[in-house]
Specification:
5 domains; five-stranded parallel beta sheet; 49% helix; disordered N terminus
């Protein structure tokens, strides 16, 4: 290559590559001369001239070559730093951004930047006749990779007057505090560009590629991709072609994010996935036939609950490729033929990569043939038929697990959900407080390690994992802009977006109210409480209802009584009640009144006798004062029983309310512990502990 075609920036990079190649035993000649004997780069090349040569060419690794180029570019971006690292005593930090390149950066610095004669500084073994350097490389994974660790070593190196370089993904978080304070230069590895990729190919293969490198490939490629694509036994142009393939398929083998075992809040879907992971392990070992594996799943849930993340986690835990697509991707073509071709191509790729997970999002985008007009029926029928063909044949897709996702299960063509296709349907519900706290912990990583995240989880009630990720990201950004550590208040500020939390006086009311539901419900055997929660919007009791006696007159009245238990607890413990029990169509009063109306006019348990009135007739009858009186009498009787039970269990009520008010959240374990220490009783006799095991959803 003519010297005039080489940018000045690449002079140092080429010198570093030559030094690494010499260390590896290559017989390549130095790539260029600057013509200036005092030039520091020329001095590096002089050092290479005496290096022994071997007969056959050997290559350095592509990732090492890429790292050398990026380190060289960072160093030559500071005037005089190349010379200073060899002759003076600069203090430098280098941000690598990625943990997996830290060791490569250290190798480049030690071999190239400091010079072959320099030795690593050791305060206990230093000699005045040798030249030293102090290199601190931290990838952020060690327990001592913190600002408060290693400051003594930095002080010793500063005192000795040796050049100091600290390399880490995030120097502020991973390097000694005093190193950052003493640093004169703060460098960072840049992004790989086309010229860097071409130089890596030249360093590895000995030739420059003639083929163009696509812009998308350049943008998407990282150092790990280069070592997969660029090898000495390939031509330069073959390396370009292979790099494009590697980059194009990276998403398929991307196992970033949590494994299935780390996911929280997925319930039955998580259990299904763990069973699948075990089955795939047995299948790959030849101990299980493909026909024995449950290989199709339809995930249902609102946007943001983590359907895509679930598929990624399954693939990661099973260590198989993930092919992610969507109906929108299939329909990107303006013509039916393009859509059909996209479906065939997707399944063909999955069969080629099997065993694998094929994830199809937005499956409700394929119209249900039962709802189509004749105008569109032929178009969608061809699409549905092809999808059914791809899904149905076990022999046609061995090793391919298909996970579909939808927000609207009722929009899915019934044939897609039949046996042998996506015949298993699991709904992913919004995460509860426990799951939200775990999701917060995952996205926070090592931040706020000793902070109870329950307040954040309670403030986030009713939201999704995607919401949590966004809040954490914004909270980190806010703290970073203010140049301080992240706090729990930062999270709460983002979650609430200016909304005030629940005042303390209402917090007490909510705690008493939910405790009332628990006491009455347990006393009458209506339910087993799963959680008691105080959120920004109020309180909630999540339960498993008992099926025993649920269809009898007494069972329904007990249910009404439990619904009124919250109001009764407020009256007994606080001396007055709030309006909370009657707000909205799903309120305690609304549901209790509806049940009382059903008893009187629909279920045959009222004074009218064995009769069932239509909805219209019921509306008319409710204008009759005598009917209203019957309903009121029933509600008053249930309310009186609730007050009596609350009063008899005053100690239990207060204990539960006090704990709930303090923590904001009681899970099943905490509830069982409280009821064990403060048993609920009827007429002075504790309820049977056997009740708690009889209730099912």
């Amino acid at each position: 290559m003519p010297q005039q075609n080489i940018t000045k920036r690449d002079l140092l990079a080429r010198a570093y590559l030559d030094m690494l190649a010499a260390e590896a035993g290559t017989n390549n000649s130095p790539l260029l001369r600057s013509g200036n004997p005092d030039d520091p780069i020329e001095m590096l090349i002089d050092e290479l001239s005496s290096a022994p040569r071997c007969e056959e060419r050997t290559s350095i690794r592509a990732d090492l070559a890429a790292t050398a180029i990026m380190v060289a570019r960072a160093i030559e971006g500071v005037d005089g730093l190349t010379r200073d690292l060899r002759r003076n005593r600069p203090v430098v930090t280098l941000a690598t951004h990625a943990a997996d390149v830290v060791s490569l950066v250290a190798q480049v610095l030690q071999t190239c930047a400091f010079g072959p004669e320099a030795k690593a500084f050791d305060s206990g073994r230093s000699s005045s006749t040798s030249r030293y350097f102090f290199l601190l490389a931290r990838d952020g994974t060690g327990s001592d990779h913190k600002p408060e660790r290693g400051n003594d070593s930095v002080a010793n190196a500063l005192h000795a007057g040796v050049p100091i370089v600290g390399a880490a993904p995030d120097p502020r978080r991973h390097l000694p505090r005093d190193l950052l304070r003493a640093a004169e230069h703060h460098l960072a590895l840049g992004q790989i560009d086309e010229s860097a990729i071409r130089l890596v190919i030249e360093a590895v293969t000995g030739a420059q590629p003639t083929a163009a490198i696509g812009t998308q490939t350049v943008r998407a490629a990282d150092i790990s991709d280069l070592v997969l694509a660029i090898r000495a036994d390939r031509t330069a142009d073959d390396c370009v072609s292979r790099l494009e393939q590697v980059v194009a398929t990276r998403g398929i083998f991307d196992h970033s994010g949590p494994a299935l075992e780390e996911l929280a809040g997925y319930g039955a879907a998580r259990e299904w996935g763990l069973n699948l992971v075990e089955d795939l392990r047995e299948y790959r070992a030849g101990r299980l036939d493909w026909e024995c594996i449950e290989k199709g799943l339809l995930l249902v849930g609102p946007p943001g609950v983590g359907k895509t993340q679930f598929a990624k986690a399954v693939a990661k835990s099973a260590n198989v490729p993930l092919i992610a697509t969507s109906v929108a991707d299939w329909n990107a073509s303006a013509f039916l033929s393009g859509t059909l071709a996209a479906i065939k191509s997707c399944f063909a790729q999955a069969r080629k990569l099997a065993p694998c997970v094929l994830f199809i999002d937005e499956l409700d985008g394929i119209s249900d043939r039962a709802t189509l007009t004749s105008e569109y029926r032929e178009y969608w029928t061809q699409i549905v038929n092809l999808l059914l063909e791809q899904l149905a044949g076990v022999e046609d897709r061995p090793g391919v697990v298909v996970i579909g996702a939808t927000n609207h299960v009722d929009h899915i063509d019934a044939a897609i959900r039949r046996a042998g296709r996506l015949d298993r349907t699991i709904e992913i519900e919004l995460p509860n407080a426990d799951s939200l706290a775990q999701i917060f912990r995952y996205h926070l990583g090592e931040l706020l390690p000793d902070i109870d995240l329950t307040p954040a989880a309670l403030a986030a009630a009713g939201k999704t994992g995607a919401d949590v990720e966004a809040w954490v990201r914004r909270a980190k950004s806010h703290a970073r802009r203010e140049r301080r550590e992240l706090s729990l208040d930062d999270l709460l500020r983002e979650i609430r977006s200016g909304r005030e939390g629940l005042p303390n006086n209402l917090r007490r009311v909510c705690a008493v109210h939910e405790a009332g539901h628990l006491v009455v419900g347990v006393a009458l055997g209506v339910f087993t409480a799963k959680t008691l929660t105080i959120m920004d919007a109020g309180g909630a009791t999540h339960v498993e209802l008992s099926r025993a006696n649920s269809q009898t007159k007494d069972g329904i009245e007990n249910h009404i009584t439990a619904l009124l238990g919250g109001r009764a607890a407020e009256e007994v413990l606080l001396g007055q009640a709030t309006a909370g029990a009657g707000v909205g169509e799903q309120s305690d009063f609304s549901r209790a009144t509806s049940a009382a109306i059903d008893l009187e006019l629909r279920f045959g348990f009222g004074s009218i006798g064995v009769a069932h009135f239509s909805e219209r007739a019921t509306e008319l009858l409710l204008h009759d004062p005598s009917i209203i009186a019957l309903i009121k009498k029933r509600l008053d009787r249930c309310h009186s029983i609730a007050r009596d039970l609350v009063a008899k269990n005053h100690v239990t009520l207060e204990a539960v309310a006090r704990r709930l008010e303090k923590t904001g959240y009681l899970d099943r374990t905490a509830i069982d512990e409280l009821l064990k220490n403060y048993p609920v009783s009827i007429d002075g006799h504790p309820t049977s502990s056997r009740h708690a095991t009889e209730f099912v959803q």
